[in-house]
Every structure is written in C-alpha cells, then in structure tokens.
Amino acid sequence: LQKIGVFTSGGDAPGMNAAIRAVTRAAIANKLKVVGIRRGYQGMIEGDFIPLRSADVSGIIQLGGTVLRTARSNEFRTFEGRQKAWLQLQKAGIDAVVVIGGDGSFTGALTMSQEFNISFVGIPATIDNDMYGTDYTIGYETALNSVVCAVDKIRDTAVSHGRIFIVEVMGREAGLLALNGGIACGAEVILIPESKEQHDELKRFLDKGYRHKERSGIIMVAEGDEPGGALKIAEQVRREHPDLDVRVSILGHIQRGGSPTANDRVNATRMGVAAVDALLDDQKSIMIGIDDGKIVQVPFNKAVKLNHSIDGDLLDIQRMLNI
Amino acid sequence: LQKIGVFTSGGDAPGMNAAIRAVTRAAIANKLKVVGIRRGYQGMIEGDFIPLRSADVSGIIQLGGTVLRTARSNEFRTFEGRQKAWLQLQKAGIDAVVVIGGDGSFTGALTMSQEFNISFVGIPATIDNDMYGTDYTIGYETALNSVVCAVDKIRDTAVSHGRIFIVEVMGREAGLLALNGGIACGAEVILIPESKEQHDELKRFLDKGYRHKERSGIIMVAEGDEPGGALKIAEQVRREHPDLDVRVSILGHIQRGGSPTANDRVNATRMGVAAVDALLDDQKSIMIGIDDGKIVQVPFNKAVKLNHSIDGDLLDIQRMLNI
Amino acid sequence: LQKIGVFTSGGDAPGMNAAIRAVTRAAIANKLKVVGIRRGYQGMIEGDFIPLRSADVSGIIQLGGTVLRTARSNEFRTFEGRQKAWLQLQKAGIDAVVVIGGDGSFTGALTMSQEFNISFVGIPATIDNDMYGTDYTIGYETALNSVVCAVDKIRDTAVSHGRIFIVEVMGREAGLLALNGGIACGAEVILIPESKEQHDELKRFLDKGYRHKERSGIIMVAEGDEPGGALKIAEQVRREHPDLDVRVSILGHIQRGGSPTANDRVNATRMGVAAVDALLDDQKSIMIGIDDGKIVQVPFNKAVKLNHSIDGDLLDIQRMLNI
Amino acid sequence: LQKIGVFTSGGDAPGMNAAIRAVTRAAIANKLKVVGIRRGYQGMIEGDFIPLRSADVSGIIQLGGTVLRTARSNEFRTFEGRQKAWLQLQKAGIDAVVVIGGDGSFTGALTMSQEFNISFVGIPATIDNDMYGTDYTIGYETALNSVVCAVDKIRDTAVSHGRIFIVEVMGREAGLLALNGGIACGAEVILIPESKEQHDELKRFLDKGYRHKERSGIIMVAEGDEPGGALKIAEQVRREHPDLDVRVSILGHIQRGGSPTANDRVNATRMGVAAVDALLDDQKSIMIGIDDGKIVQVPFNKAVKLNHSIDGDLLDIQRMLNI
Question: CA of A268, closest CA in chain B: separation in Å?
C-alpha cells in the first residue's frame, strides 16, 4: 500500500471535512501518499484528482459541507462507468480508497470492488443515522442540534401567538431526527414512519389536549416517503379543527450544513484514523463504525441493509410527558 | 398619570420582551403603576390584565417572543370592540398605554384614541423594518442575522453539490431582509418587490454566469405579495434550464424567534424608556423612533404610511460584486 | 409512595431543567405529587419548598442553569444539619427524593439515607463527565460544544496573527473536556492531568513544530488541581521561547451555562423518567446512568468513586494528526 | 491607476474578510489589478504579496479573522522600514493601497504617504468602535454580540447560585463594548473608563441592592488601562463584603473572532466598494466611514484623533432600570 484515495459521496453531512483531514494525516503519518477524489464517483470517472498534503487539510475540521465536493453519478451505475473509474484509479496509482458517505455510496463501492481489483473502506456520513452496525454516522448530531435550535425559535412564536406549528424535518425512511428532536424540544406530538400509531396521538392531542385558548403546540413530522408531508397533515388538521391557528415550517436544507458539533468532529476523526488502519491491515469492503464507544468494522453488505429500529421507550416517554 | 398599560400586538418580534422590561421599570422608577395587557387588543377587550412589578420583568431581556403574548383581534376592528376595550381600561384605572407592534397596531391605537379619551405611545417592533420615521424596528436585526446564519448553512450544501438554492425570506411588501441578507451572504441574485429589474439579473446569472459545472449559487427572494414565490421561480428556472440542479428553501418562521441581538435589546430598552418619558410629557399618538442614533417622536399617522424605500446603492454593489 | 421531592445540587449544569421537567411530569403521570426543593441541601434544611405542577415545568427544557437554584451547604455536612433537613422533608410529607447533581451531592444523599428513613435516587449532572458507571452526565456535552465554539473563535485570531494560544478549560481532576475539545478543535497540544507525558508533547511542539513564522497553535489545558495552570505554562513557554507570541485564554464560566444540546436534553429526559420509575420500584441509593445507550442503575457508593480513565487512543490520535 | 494593494493591519476584527472581498471585486469590476499584501506593514516591507483574483475571495465573506493575516511591525516605525516598504510597492507596480485597520494603521499610512509618493485609503476595522467620524467600525458589532452571548451563559450560573460575576470585556480606552453589552445583558453595574462616577454605582449596588440572599448580579468592566481590572475589583469587593460569593470572568479573545454579523458584513462590503471608488477619484489619506447610514470620507488626521464620547443617556437608562 503506497497511495490511497479519499472521497465524499451522496448528500453532504457536517463532519465530512474532519474525516477527510483525519484520513489524510493518518495516511501521511503512515508514509502513504493521499489523493483527493473530487465530486464523488463522477469525479472518479473523470479523473478529477488532487494530491492532499497535511497543509491542504489544515483549518477545515470546523467547516460544514465537503471540500472535496460531492455529486450524484448515473454513469457510475453502469459497468462502463465503473470501468472508467477503475482505469482512472489505476492511472493515478491509487491502491485503495476511503469512501465517506451513506449506503448508496457503500453499495457502489462494494459492486466496484467485486468487479475490479480495488479495496474500499467506508466511513458512515449521513444526517439520517440509519446505518446498521454503528451508533453514530457523521453529521447526524449536528443536524439534530440544528433542528432543535430552529424549533426553539419557532416555539417562541408558537407560544406568543397560541399557535400550533407542524415542523417537518429530514428523514425519508428514518424518523430518528424527528424523534430525538421532538423529545429535545418538548414537542407535543411526534409523527414518524416507524410508528403509525402516533397518528392516534395527534388525534388525542387535537381532540382533548388543546382546549385552552392559549395553549400552543409543536408537532414534529419526519418527511417520510416524500417531502411535504407536513402540508398534508396541516390540511387535514385545518379541515377537522377550523378554529385552530395552524402553521407549517419545513426546515429543509438548514438541517444539512453548518459547523459540526464536537462529537461529530471527534467521531469523524476517530473513524478517519481507523479507516486508514483498516487499509493498512489489508481490510476491504468494510465500514468503520462506533459501537458502545469503541471502533468496530462492519462488512459493507451488512451495513447497507438499512435497519433503523427506533427506541420504543422514547415514544413511551414522549407520550407520558405530554399527558 | 398614575397607571399605564403595556402590550404587544401583531406578529411577535425578538426584543419585544426587552421593551416590556424597559417600559415597566422606567414607569416604576417614575412612580407609576404598570399593568400588562395580555394577548394584544383581544386581551384588552377581555380585560386579560396582570400587574407588572420590577421582578416580573427580571430575566426576560434575552428571550424571544413576548411574555405578554400577542393575538389578532377581529372584534377590535369594530366600534363595539374598541368600546369594550376602553371600558376595561377605565375599570382598571389605566390612564395611558404603550403599544409595542407594527403599523396595524398603531392604526388601531390611533382610531381608538380618536374615539375615546385614552393616550397611546407606540414602540415599533416588526422584523420587516418598514416603518416610516425610524431607522430601527425591534426584531429586524435579529431576523436578519437568523437569515444570514441559515443561508451560511445552505451555502455549505450548495457549494458541496454545485447546486443553485432559491431561498425565500420574509417581507411581504418590503425586501429589506432579502436585500441585506443577500449582501451579507454574498448571494448571486437578489429578487425584491421594490426592484423589478432584478429579474434581468436572474436571467443574466442563469444564461451567462452559470457555465462552470462546479459553480453554485444562492438566489435570495423576498416573499413579496404572497409566500411561495420561490417555488414559482424554481419552476420557471427548471423549465428554462433543465440541466441545473435547483432547490428551494423557504426559511419561514425560524426568522421570527430566537434570542435578540445586542442592538435589538439596546434599542428596545432605549425606546421603552423614551415611551414612558413621552407619556409623562403628555404626548399621545406618537411612535418612538431612532433616527441617526437619536430618539425621535413620529406621529402615528405619519409612521403607518408605509414607506420602504430601498437603498439603491446596495443593489448596485450587489451587481458589481457578482460580475 | 405519594409525594416526592426533587432538587439540584452542586455546580449548575445545562440540562438540569430538562431533568426537573421529566421528573415532575413522570411523577404526575404516575399519580405522585411533586415538591421542588430550592437551593440544594441548604434549601432542604430551610424548608424552601414549592409544589410543582405540570405547567410549572413548561417551557424550561431549553434553559441553562436550574430553575430550582443550587447552593453549597456547610450545615448539611453536620448531623444536626441533616436532621433538620429530614424533619423538613417529614413535615412536607415527602417520601422520597430525586437528587440531580454530582458526586458530592450523591455522597450527601447516601449519608442522609443511612441516618434517616428516606430514599434518594440520583441523576448525574456535571460538566466534567467524571462519574463511574455512566457514559453521560448531564451538561458535559453542552460544555464541550461551548469549549469548541470558543476555541474556533480564538483560532481565527491565532491564525491571523501567527500566535500561540494557551486555552484553559474546566476539569479539576478530569481532562475529558480538554481532551475531546482539543481533538475537535485540532489543538496542537493537549495537556491533561491523566497523562503527564503530554508535557513532552509540548516541548516537542515548541522545539520542532513551531519553526515557521506564520504557524499558529492552540494548546489546550485542563485546569487540573487549580485554576490558572495556563498562566504558569505561558510563563514557562515565554521564558524558554521569548520569540514566540503567546497568549492565554481562560474560558471560565462560559463553559457552564447556555441552552443544552439535543443529547443533553434527551438524556436528561430519559434519566428523569427512569429516576421516577426507580422510586416506584422501591429503589434507593442508586444513580441512574446510561451505558451503551441503555438506562442502568448504579449504587451510589460505586458511582461516587471517581473513576475517570481517559481513552488513551484519543491521545495517540492527537499525536499522530499533529505530526 | 492600474494596480492597487490591499492589506489588514493591527488586531484582527470579524468582517475584515468581507472588506477584502469587496475591495478586490470592486477593483476588478473597474478594470484594476489587485495585490494582497500579507501580514500588514511587516509583509509590505518583506514583499509578501499575492495576486488576488475574483475567485480568490470567494467563500470568505462569512469567515472571522483575516485571510491576509496581520502583524505588528517595529521596523515600519523607522524611516528605513517605510522606505523598504515603498520600494516593494514600487517594484510590484502598486499605485495605491487600501488599508483595513485601526488608528495605528492609519497613522502609519499617513506618515508613509507624506514621505513617499503613494496613496492610501483606509477602512476602519476594530472591535473597539473608537474611530472619529464613523458610526461603525468593522468587527465591533460582532464582538458586542459575542459579549452578550457569553454573559447570557454566565447569567445562568449567576442566577442558579445567587452569585455576583464581574465580567471583564475588551476596550483599553473605550467602554463602548462594556456599556452596550451591559445594557443588552441587563447588567446591574457597568464600569467604564469614561465615567468614574460609576464606581459609586458599584458601592450603591453592593451596599443596598444586594440584600436578598438569592439575588445575583453581573458587573461589567471595561478592561481600561490594563487587563485584569476585574481581578482588582473582585479583591476589593471581597474585602468589603466577605459574605458575597464573587466570581471573575475575563472574556478575552473569544470577543475577537467568529463569523461576522450581518451588519458587519454589509458595512464592510459597502466600505470596501467605497474605498475603491475613492482611489478612482484620486482621493488619498482618507478613511471611509458611515455616518447616519451614508458613506462619508474622513481625513486620516481627523479620524485617528481618538474621540470616544459615550452616550451619557445610556448610563442614565442603566441606572434607572436597575433601581
């Protein structure tokens, strides 16, 4: 092992830069050369490579987004695309690659490593925190705090006006942001794809819980299968309770950026170092994870089998505290 | 003058609590009694009053929203409603009232003071900063910084993905938040109701300025006559430039809450003290303002004539810096 | 069990209010009455009690500090003091108490419960995160992020001027804030009481690492046995390297306050509910903890045996990334 | 005029980067070439120059510190030093220079322009806001909000413990940060060099105002002639009132860095554009200022005559609101 590549792929997540920095410096400390692959798999296909020295990753640990950029690539979904990518890696003398991203990115890495002689080690980075085998994915905690900070502000207005706000947060198939964000903000109702019975909670809240004219409420909604779920719920609530003053806030992309939290930086740093260690140990097709505070290695084909069991206790707690 | 009332009205704005605190303590320092009127004109009609002592306004200077709540009141728009309100003030022994709000609130105060024997002095509080005769309205600066903070985060994602984000900020008839927020964030295009020619800027940016595949962009849009303007613009852009990756972010109510900035607190404090001074000076139907750093008094009927001239130089600057 | 007390004790920590809220509402949901004991053990001795209803803990989940106040009590260190406290609890009909604090607070509870017929269950809240048996103590994560946010600002000046900043953070006997804060900020050197060999790192950094005239550096120092350690280190550095531009920043009490992070709120909520559950289960003299994401119960006499092993891997990582 | 230089000098201030960006892009828009002079006058002497294109100042508007670095230069205080600097500018073909800094920086520019054939235009950037002829200096507002944010946190602890905190903020000869920060945080006492009678306020507060055992207090202190003033005041207070729990917090360098506020960015942008306009108009030895919202030009020899009159009304307000 002499030269490794590193890239970010899929949606950007705060802490990706901390991971890029750690991978680069850990590799250099181990006498490896490092190449940054820009714009994800698309940049790999196009050979959009830059050498990374220690100084190049100085002063980026606190920045949101990714200095290596990211992109979606349809071309990489084809064998021809992956072949082009492999030839580019060959040409650049890259022996192994650290991929920072989510399940789509790891699936791509797995496929390519089965077709061509190239090793990938993954670092989980997605604000959804929905990977199997790791307690943390980079960016989730920052996004969670961005949600909480935004809802704290919305609460000021909700209370001042005696209004109900339906707040939609990210999470296509995973309600973790909505659930923990809702608990942290003292939301009156939390609607997540994992628990359909929460809709009864909404009904209960609207029917019984909202009698006093001054009472305000926050209803947290995970975007679920499609964004805009909050708008539909608002419509329904307005139809059934025309007397209520109901507003919608779709938090959207403010959840994705921003300077990473302390933990997101520390975990990204630890996982970046562990990814280089794994490559030096001749590992391949594994994701670095953190389980009970310790670094673990999870095979790609396990990690990508999305498994987002929700802690049911949290839902019980939420119901109890809002009686 | 022995007892004054104070209330907040219209949309909540950060810094209203600092104004309530200053009014209360300045009045007490001048041997006046103070009554808090809850939920705006509606609370006035219902006699929803609470006595305010110095300790009651302790620890609120840094809080968003309004501890006196606010509400819309259709009943107050009728003579009967205003009569009820006046009788409640009479019954409570309230001689004069400080109203903290925007032009709708001042118009109501003016009407009532012409029909009944009661004095109002106003403190401008609205995140739109669209009152005539004052350089500051309470809440505007905080909202502006919330916009900037949110767009800084969105920029992380825009740059990482090479995307164009159309960001919609508050401002029905006034584009000040969009204009200054756009300058502060280095937005590529700023669309405001006061300058229709800005749409040529958008066209110019899309046609010429966006050739490089990596370039990202922020387009700031004031919500204008109706919210959702950003969605329409996005539709149009996608139709004309199907190759671009365009996203929409409607900032919504996160612009309204939050802990007030230093200036919003200081200005609210100064205006609160000046409002009590004005009542002690037997003034009525005037708004306290700040002009060139100094406290001024502006008659209600001038202040409410919305006059939101935009500094054309800022638009020129924005165009120049994005060439 | 019919009526429980709840109080905060020792240094305040962000998230204490979230715990008070959860204890109160979980107790009420279980048909218990709740009494807030103000100003810690001193207030217990003085009978400074207030009834807590659900509405009394509304709107406090996001506030720093503690609405029940806290205090040190020398009187409670005497048998007579504890007897007075017990009589006050008896008089108020309080059957059991939830104590929110650190090891000193739990030691006091343990002593009192051995002398008198009263049960205590503890919730760990201290920004040092130095309790045995729990991965989290309430307030630590918020303090850590306050450190990181402050050092990010200091870094701006350090880089602009090519200066070395010695930043002192809290942590009398525990260097966790300095260690994780240092990793998260990319500190060049981290000095903690748990690892004396880190001083060689400082020497190495100053001798070899700081040759370039533009290079700046952050040296993180845990306050150790006494505050002001940073000043002594600065003196020594200036003596040995008179050419360097060295500044000191003692972060002090800005680390302690502020709105709690999402995790601090969620964990405080979970532990508050678990504390009430434990009392209902007739548990006594235990601390609620979180281990590997799950609620655990730790006997007081184990928890208070301060055990703050530092993750040595983090120090290795820090050294590697700064070569 | 074909090529201009731009540099930052003296203490760094948030918003300097926004000014660098505006100067660079406004110059390019006017067909000028731009050279960045690194590390202030010292870099000018050493010829530490870099060309600045539009892309070089992309993505810096939101960053604290200064990308051009800054430094103190003893050599520049000598004629020989300034001659070297002038020769470097000659060699690089620089016709005129924009200097971003405070009064020391402008004094240096004035001296050099009187000795050699070179024009300077200044942009005021200092967190003290103590320049004559301008309502704003870049960085002051950001520093003020950093102070307020820090004191809000300290207040959490002060209230929770019933403590008095003496908080020292920057401001060698100017108490503006302490005064406005104190008003914004509801400080109980504000001590500034401009008003010696404030010490009577301290005595009054300690003697009369602090009777209740639960009452907490914030005493804001401008560092005055020397840092550490807060420590001396604390000593004195402890001697005279040994019963009080008094703590000191010296905010230090966290006041200097951080992402600039919206106004600091907008004002820096406006002044940067105006500085280039002034050079194109053949102006020299003037500082750009903002007076009553409008761009003004102030001769260097007026601007540097420090004139920091404090708004006495604010002190009156503070006294009134804390009775």
Answer: 18
Contacts of D313 in chain B (CB under 8 A): 270
Q: What is the pLDDT of residues A149-205, one digit of tens each?
A: 999 999 999 999 999 999 999 987 778 999 999 999 999 999 998 887 777 888 888
Q: Is residue A311 part of a domain?
A: no
CA distance B18 to chain A (A): 14
Cα D147 from Cα D125, distance rounded (Å): 18
Q: Do B176 and B205 belong to one domain?
A: yes
CATH value at residue C214: 3.40.50.460
Inter-chain CB proximity B262 and D147 less than 8 Å: yes
Domain count, chain B: 2
CA angle C120-C124-C127, nearest 5°?
150
- The per-residue pLDDT for range A85-100, each reduced to its tens digit, is 999 999 999 999 999 9
Domain that holds residue D285: 3-139+260-303
Which candidate from B70, B160, B256 shows the least CB-CB separation from A66? B160
**Inter-chain residue contact A181 with C262, CB threshold 8 Å:** yes
Does B254 sit within 8 Å of A251, measured CB to CB?
yes
Is B293 within the bounds of a domain? yes
Is any Cβ of chain C less than 8 angstroms from the Cβ of A23? Answer: no
A205, burial (CB in 10 Å: exposed 0-12, middle 13-18, buried 19+): middle
* C151, closest residue in chain D (CA to CA): D254
In a domain, D309, yes or no: no
Question: How many residue contacts between C and D have a Cβ separation below 8 Å?
Answer: 112
* Judgement on whether residues A226 and A283 belong to the same structural domain of the protein: no
Strand A119-124 to C246-250 pairing: unpaired
Q: Which residues pair with A169 in a beta bridge?
A: A222
Q: Any idea what the CATH number is for the domain that residue C56 is in?
A: 3.40.50.450
SS3 at position C289: strand
Q: What is the pLDDT of residues C145-198, one digit of tens each?
A: 999 999 999 999 999 999 999 999 998 777 899 999 999 999 999 999 888 777
Selected for mutation to probe chain D from B151, B212, B320 (highest D CB count within 10 Å) is B320
Q: Which residues numbered 78-137 in B keep a CB inside 8 Å of some CB on A?
A: none
Q: Which residues of chain B are within 8 Å of residue A214 when distances are taken between CB atoms?
A: 39, 69
What is the ipTM score, two decimals?
A: 0.96
- With beta carbons less than 8 A apart as the criterion, state whether A139 and A8 touch: no
